[in-house]
Amino acid sequence: CRDGMAHFRIAIDPDARVFATADRIREFALWSLDSFARLQVFAGHQEEVRGAAFLDRDRLLSVSGDSTARLWNRQTGALLAVLPTHPLYCLAAHPSGELVAAGGSAGASGRIDLIDASLRLLRTIDTSISPATYPPLPAERVRQLGIVASRRDSANVACIAWHPDGMRLVTGGWDYVVKMFEAATGACLRRWSGHSHRVTAIAVSADGNSIASGSSDGQIRLWAAESDACLATFDRLPGSVEDLLFVDDRLHAACGDGRVYVVP
Question: Theoretical Cys-Cys bridge with 201: which of 46, 133, 214, 225, CB 3.0 to 4.6 Å?
């Protein structure tokens, strides 16, 4: 992978006992959940594969910074269709499995694409840089990050998750802001600010009441889904938060040091 860093998300189909991960910069693979044997390789993207979603027993959808979404036969690895898009960096499957939401950038704006299981583009939602209040980064985090990007650079959507109701989307972006959108209309329903750097991970609790966001500022913040309240802040993590997952009401965080932490 580029610079020796693998940037990918894992997608799991528990019924078929398989999972998908990025394998090389332009490939991703299907693996057995039981034996960890590699079952299939999907090659064709021209940039890193940033997300994959299982649509059914036969099809798999992937997105990449190469400005395409691709539909694959998961049994044979054959490419079925290509949808030209814009650079895409995250993907979330709808609870019904009938469509996906993919996030990325469109110039200085962020953009969300709603794509159905036949790889048809149903709707685009544009999101501009939002006003935000945020504390300065500690000197140690500035040193770790090197050149600290300005939030004026882009509203790129870096992470995305569906609310369990299937009607709302929650995103995090390079403007340091967490946002909630109504999928049917594209209306921005709520914004939460407080992170000091890019929001890199989003998770929604199973009951839909809480939203967790992680950032390259090394913090996790817990928000109330139906208000502007920040419920808790966890800032003792050793590096950037790369991914978040609620498991039985406990929050798990994958961090830049290669470890997974359980957040109390």
Answer: 214
